[in-house]
Amino acid sequence: MLDTYRVTLALRRVVCRMSEGSGDVAPVGVGEVLVLRETDYRYGAGELRLRVTAVPTQSPGPEWMTVIGVELRRNGQPGAERAVSVPVEVLRLPRVRSVR
Q1: Best CA proximity match to 51, nearest among 29, 32, 74
Q2: Cα–Cα distance between 41 and 28 in angstroms, integer?
Q3: pTM for the complete prediction?
Q4: What pLDDT, in 10s, does the model give residues 16-61?
C-alpha cells in the first residue's frame, strides 16, 4: 500500500496549486476507471485497469502526471494501490476511460 503521508502531501500540492488560480485542471477525476496499455504508462508491464483515488499530480516533467489509484483485477475486484506516471496526452484520450 502507498504511504498515506506521501499521498496526503501530493494532494496538498494539488489543492495549493489549484487555489492559487493557476488554471491547472486535472485531465481525470477521482472515481474514473482508466484502461492503460503497456505503452501508455511509464515502466508498463501489461494492460492496467486503474480506478483513480486521488487527483493526478504533476510528475517529472510537464508532459507527465502521477495518477494514484487501485488496480482492478480482470474479475473487477480491487487489487493493490498504485501510483503510475502517465503522459498527459494519453489521459486526454477517450479510449483510456472505461464504463464504470
Answers
A1: 32
A2: 15
A3: 0.68
A4: 344 344 445 568 889 999 999 999 998 888 999 999 999 777 666 6
Q: Does residue 27 contact residue 65 with C-beta atoms inside 8 Å?
A: yes
> What string of DSSP letters covers 30-81?
TT-EEEE-GGGSTT--S-EEEEEEEEEEE-SSTTEEEEEEEEEPTTS-EEEE
Q: Which domain holds residue 38?
A: 4-96
CB count in 10 Å sphere of residue 73:
10
- In whole angstroms, what is the distance from residue 15 CA to residue 49 CA? 26
Question: How many CA atoms, within 13 angstroms, populate the side-chain half-sphere of residue 82?
Answer: 20
Q: Look-up: residue for cell 502526471?
A: 65
What is the number of residues in the chain? 100
Number of domains in the chain: 1
State how far the Cα of 9 lies from the Cα of 35, in Å rounded to an integer. 26
